[in-house]
């Protein structure tokens, strides 16, 4: 599979981000805990160099607990402040304020020495499409201050949000980077829904996901769907299609429909809690 998706508005968003960075004290980047490496935009490191950095491992409730702990250590060892959050339920969100204060400790101390007191910390929040950024902001601010949706690309323009007397937040549209050097990164982004479904082949995606889960989480697919593991992923998908009654006209098996079910069940965390990449790789 070949992944290439970079709409024009993303170029504009990146340029705006480069302009706004000089106003910022700390950059908060949301990544998806199921793919903490592939969902982190490498362009942000260049844009945000010399700024305090926070990584929020969002949707940690859908990821493997042990692997999430490993990723937290991995990013902390690289100098990031890290927190686990579940934007939807609000778990871990309140603690982010403390992480922001900790990340900006030196800046707060510098201000204090200059006699500048109570100046709010200015944070920029960034993340790829569909990583849960708007939901996080609403949860963090305690009110619906941004539009949310489960389709990538809902946030189009920038907006400042006063979270509390200590923190002002600059929201930015989700941006991907222009080229995936490693196509497995594109594949993982597609698994979690950060690339629009319309540009992808759901059957190929479903087969790749089954193959991955059967390799690293053996038996999880078969146990959830109550089917036998096939010789390969196409045979396993066939068994799922039969079990779920996925039929086209003429009683032909509908593999696309079965693959769509697997993809939706995975995204919703129904099959299990999975992390799709590991720090050791």
Characterization of the model:
The chain has 281 residues and is an alpha/beta fold. It folds into 2 domains: 8-171, P-loop containing nucleotide triphosphate hydrolases (Rossmann fold, 3-Layer(aba) Sandwich); 201-267, Conserved Hypothetical Protein Ylqf, Chain: A, domain 2 (Orthogonal Bundle). Helix content is 40%, strand content 12%. It is built from 11 helices and 6 strands. It has helices at 8-20, 42-47, 65-77, 96-103, 105-113, 133-141, 183-192, 202-216, 220-225, 233-243, 255-267, and strands spanning 26-32, 52-58, 81-85, 121-127, 159-162, 167-171. A 6-stranded mixed β-sheet has the order 3-2-1-4-6-5, sandwiched between helices. The longest helix has 15 residues, at 202-216. The chain is elongated, with a radius of gyration of 20 Å. Mean pLDDT is 86; it is low at 151-156.
> Helix fraction?
40-55%
Domain unit count: 2
CATH topology of the largest domain: Rossmann fold
Mean pLDDT across all amino acids: 86
> What's the quaternary structure here?
single chain
Total number of helices: 11
Percent of residues in β-strands: 5-15%
């Amino acid at each position: 599979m070949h992944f290439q998706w970079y709409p024009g508005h993303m170029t504009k968003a990146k340029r705006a981000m480069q302009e706004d960075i000089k106003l910022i004290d700390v950059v908060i980047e949301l990544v998806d805990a199921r793919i903490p490496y592939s969902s982190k935009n490498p362009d942000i490191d260049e844009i945000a160099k010399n700024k305090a950095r926070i990584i929020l491992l969002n949707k940690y409730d859908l990821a493997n607990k042990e692997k999430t702990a490993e990723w937290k250590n991995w990013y902390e060892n690289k100098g990031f402040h890290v927190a686990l959050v579940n934007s939807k339920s609000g778990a871990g969100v309140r603690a982010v304020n403390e992480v922001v204060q900790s990340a900006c400790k030196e800046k707060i101390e510098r201000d204090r020495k200059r006699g500048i007191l109570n100046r709010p910390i200015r944070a920029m929040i960034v993340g790829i499409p569909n990583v849960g950024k708007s939901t996080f902001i609403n949860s963090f601010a305690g009110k619906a201050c941004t539009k949310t949706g489960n389709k990538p690309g809902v946030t189009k323009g920038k907006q400042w949000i006063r979270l509390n007397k200590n923190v002002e937040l600059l929201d930015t549209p989700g941006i991907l980077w222009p080229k995936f050097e490693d196509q497995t990164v594109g594949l993982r982004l597609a698994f979690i829904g950060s690339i629009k479904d319309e540009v992808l082949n759901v059957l190929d995606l479903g087969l790749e996901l089954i193959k991955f889960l059967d390799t690293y989480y053996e038996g999880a697919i078969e146990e959830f769907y109550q089917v036998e593991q096939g010789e390969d992923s196409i045979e396993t998908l066939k068994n799922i299609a039969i079990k779920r009654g996925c039929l086209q006209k003429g009683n032909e098996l509908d593999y696309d429909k079965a693959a769509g079910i697997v993809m939706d069940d995975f995204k919703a965390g129904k099959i299990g809690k999975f992390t799709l990449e590991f720090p050791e790789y």
